Amino acid sequence: MKHFQEAMIELYQALCHLVRVVRNILTYFNFKIMNNTLKWLSAIGVEYYCHEHPTQLKVRNNTELTEKPQVKLKSTKETAFNMNDKVHENITLSRSLADKANNIEELKESLLNFNGCELKKFATNTVFGDGNLEAKIMLIGEAPGSTEDLKGIPFYGESGNLLDNMLHAIGISRKNNAYITNTVFWRPPANRQPTFEEVDICRPFVEKHIALINPKLIILVGSTAATSLLGKNSGITKIRQEYYFYTNKYLSAPIQTTAIFHPAYLLRQPMQKRTSWYDLLKIKEYVVNNRLLA
């Protein structure tokens, strides 16, 4: 009987220990899940939807909460007209500012003072550009992500590291012989693609940006940059197979242009890295033959 009681006590102690171990494991994984969830929510820009922006929200008093507001409804046509009219006004303003910029510093200053793009209201930083201003190679991406928005530098973070490694493999670096910017200069909420209107509003700045750098080769990074600047309806998979001549009103001569997959896409689809490597080899051949690294 005594041995039986001792055995039961040992069993009870073992079960208690097991419960503690299981509880610690669950606590650890719950913490990791919660932590990863918070990181994911931050990465997709969820703060945009819950952040009380001072220009968007105001404190309501009790009267405002109890009284029903008198809302005058506008027709769909009137709303659409007003929206298109505002977009056109902002495009006209951005074109005027781009026309007046005589150098990179003036263009950047104009962009910092420009409030015609709604993306700027919720962005942390204006992401203008990065790299060698004397470079003969210019890369243009889609839009800043969460890390780029915080740092104010295009292609910063995981996708930026991948892009730097891709360029380094063919002898190109943003520090020495490349310059990088985007088609829009502020992070879209939740890392969504920029709208046609947002791209069009930023387009004059991008065009003048290209003219001031005046590269010999433009590499469009991703579908948005490729389709918007080349005016193509095809996807990036088809566009990247050829070379094009890009021009705009500020350029005296067209610029040789090609496109590659966006590094963020390659992180999601690593099997496409082989295809991307072939694209890089073609770029390297063109760069070497035209002495663009000198």
From TrEMBL:
The lineage of its organism: Bacteria, Pseudomonadati, Pseudomonadota, Alphaproteobacteria, Rickettsiales. GO terms for molecular function: 4 iron, 4 sulfur cluster binding; metal ion binding; uracil DNA N-glycosylase activity. Residues 128-281 form the Uracil-DNA glycosylase-like domain. Keywords: 4Fe-4S, DNA damage, DNA repair, Hydrolase, Iron, Iron-sulfur, Metal-binding. Gene3D superfamilies: Uracil-DNA glycosylase-like domain. The keyword Cytoplasm does not apply. The keyword Iron applies. NCBIfam families: UDG_fam4. Coiled coil: none annotated. It comes from the Bacteria. One of its GO terms (biological process) is DNA repair. This is Type-4 uracil-DNA glycosylase. SMART domains: UDG, UreE_C.
